Amino acid sequence: MVSPGDISSAARKVHNEAMDLKNTERVFSRMLGGIDTWWKGQAGKAFAQDYNQQAKRAMERLYGEMENMKSGLDRLASEVRSADEQRRRKELLERQRKALK
Hints:
Elements: H1 4-33, H2 42-100
Helix pairs in contact: 1-2
Protein name: ESAT-6-like protein
Organism: Paenibacillus oralis
Family: Belongs to the WXG100 family.
């Protein structure tokens, strides 16, 4: 059975991967900013323009989805914790009730 801690750990991993991906994309964007120094002509300009118009937006959507996944996992971990607490309280009350009989 998966524990709330396992779920929270998965949420942190998703967040960390999103941050790593974002950092890698920033490095690539900086490199792309200097593309005209080594890739001359229309092809280099077209590549940079396409990246800025399409790929960058796709990456932003991906970051958003990854953060949504992290939030969902955090909520799930919280709900599992609450359910576990309720189950433990119910078991305790049941044991106490049996002890009084």
